[in-house]
Each structure stands twice: as structure tokens, then as C-alpha cells.
Task: structure prediction
Amino acid sequence: MTTASRLPEPYPQQGGSNLADILERVLDKGIVIAGDIRINLLDIELLTIKLRLVVASVERAKEMGIDWWEDDPALSTGARRTEIARENEELRRRVEQLERRELELAEGGEATGDGGGESRARGARGARGERHDGRGERERDR
Amino acid sequence: MTDELRYVYAVCRPPAAPLHADLTGVAGAPPRQLVHEGLVAVVSPVPERDFAHEPLRAHLEDLDWLAETARAHQSVVSALTTVTCPLPLRLATVFRDDSGVRAMLEDESDRLRRILDRIDGHVEWGVKVWLGDSGDGDGGAEPPAARPRSTPESGRDYLRRRRAGNAAREESAARAEVFTRRLYGDLARYAADARLHPAQTGPLTEAGSGRNILNSAFLVPRARSEEFLELIGRAEGTQPGLRVEVTGPWAAYSFTDGPEATDGPEATSGPEAGETP
Result:
């Protein structure tokens, strides 16, 4: 038998392997044998599909101290409910804000009110543009 | 003892050399070899509180647990790969006890032996190609100096610039495709077998490493791995803006579907494979 010591090792060994590559193989490849503990394959497949979307970034995300999957609705059913509740609340808050602004505009005269409103809106947009991902935005809003 | 289940990592042929003494498996216990009629299952005990049906399901949704378990699974399989050519099982293949594992070895004997024969003496290499590492493929195609800031450009200039940018992008995408096809074809001819996997995507990956345009795996005889890597080395760097990433040697994870399942569109591109058994 040819031994592994003959193999060239110009690339990092498994210990340093990318998590995406490992998950891709252990979750998606490898022979499927029905064990005594049967996990519904559909569940795993769903998980795998979800992971496809995020897996490659998990390691980087961790390096950056981001743990968005923990409250990602697609990855955690528990988070889904809080996510919807949070979104609802935020939407309510925005609607209130808009209503209040409209009221102010109606009361404060059109010319000055318009200008102020626009610059405020632009300021908000600018700040949002600087953020890199949805997470930052959520964090800020929280 | 009753609260312990058996986690199976891989199946191989005896006699597998003894595994490294301080190797630990998914639940921290060292893996051992369970021999049954000419086949070896590499197993370790795992606690029922984590690996029974319900907790296991819950754990699989926990990315931290999953990552840790996946790494432990792979480290055992990887250790095995240095001493034999194991057939890796999918993550979280769990049995009640040793006799369950033995029954599996017996029931699946034909299939296991067939695949073991096929991957014997081989390892798997992963080859990926990334496009536009440094923004080359994304926004980089349009020269930033083309528009002096002080003079606002006309609509026509803007459209022209965009067209040029699009053309450049299309051209580099076309070149990347030609390169990738050729690379895959060359490697597949050299390898005993080849598989195309879906490209790896992820919001943060794209920002850093470019776009994954090839994600493939090759089953290569151990003895020819060096030449295989040289082949990649020669192709690497011939195409600016493209990065070739090689991972491995892996156990033959991508080639456990058995010889009869190789009727995929691309699997036929390596018919001249040299040392297929």
C-alpha cells in the first residue's frame, strides 16, 4: 500500500480546513446508511440547503464577531416568531413616525417643512449606506 | 452503558493500522475499530442525551454544535485516511450498540465492499476556482480613472462607459469559463473519477474571495497525487483574475454513491481515466 507519507503537502491539512468545505462533505457527501437513530432526511436536506446559502460565510462571520444565524429566521424556528414580532413593532413605529411628520408638515407650512423633511430623509439614507449588512441595521434599530 | 450510543465515522478494510492514541471523536471519546467479517467500522461512544433522536435533531439546527461535530467527524476520517482508504459515512450515523453496527456491516456488506474496492488506493482532492478576487470581476472592470470627478459626464458617456464595463465583464466571464472547462476536463482525464458540486455561495464570501465558479472533486490514485497537483500548479496563474484553490487530500467523500450512479452529465468527461480498477 502506498502510504500517506508519500503525499505532497503543499496545502493546509484538514485541521485548518475551511468549515464550508468540511460541512459540504460531511453533511452532503459521504455514504448514507440508515442508523438506529433516524433523523428525517428531509430535515437534514433542508438544513443543508439553508447552509448552502450561509455556510461559506460562517467562518468569516465568526472572525468578525457576527452571529447573525442565531436570530436568522431561516435557521431557527424560535427566532422566526421574535423576528416577525420585531418587524411588526418596527413597522408600527415607522408608520407612527410618518404620520407625525405628515402632521408636522401640514401644520408647519409647506415650504420649510418640505426642505427639513427631505434633508432628514437623506441623512437617514446616507447612514444606512455606510453599513455593510442587514445585521448592522438590525442591531442599530434594536 | 445503556445511555451510550455508537457513532460510526467510516468503514474500511482490516487490518487498519491503529489510530493515533490521542485522537478524539465527536463526543470526546477515542474512536475504536469494530471488526465484522472482513469489514471494520470505526466507532466511538456518544451520550444518548445528545445523540438520541430528539436532541440530535435540535443540535443539527445549532450551527456551533454542528461545526464542532463536523470537525470532529472529519478529524477521525482524516486520521484514518493517512493509514487506509476509508469509506466515510455521513455525519451523525448513530446506532444503539455494537450489535447494531455489526448488523449494519452485514446488511450493507455488498454495497460497502463494492465502493471500498472502487476507492481503494485513492484520495479525493477538491478543486475550486474563484473569479475576481480583488474586485476584478465585479466593479473593477471599469477603470476608475475614466471619469474625472470635476466634470460631470454626459448621459452618452455614462452609457458608453457602462457598455465598455459590461463588455469587459462579459469577456472576462467568458475567458473564465473557458479556463474552468479546460481545467476540469484536464483534471478529470487525469483522475479516476470526477464530480461537479454546486458552487459555494454566501453573502460574506463574495465580498472576500470572489465568486466561486467551479467547485469540483477528483478521485485520484495516491501515487499520482503529486502529478495531479503539478497539473493544477501549471494551470494556476495562467489566467489573471482567477484563483485556483485546492483542498485535500480528503477521504473519498464525494465518491460514495457507487459506480452505478455515475451517469451525471459531467461524470462522463473522464472516460480515459488511467488506473480505474
Observations:
- Chain A has a mean pLDDT of 60.
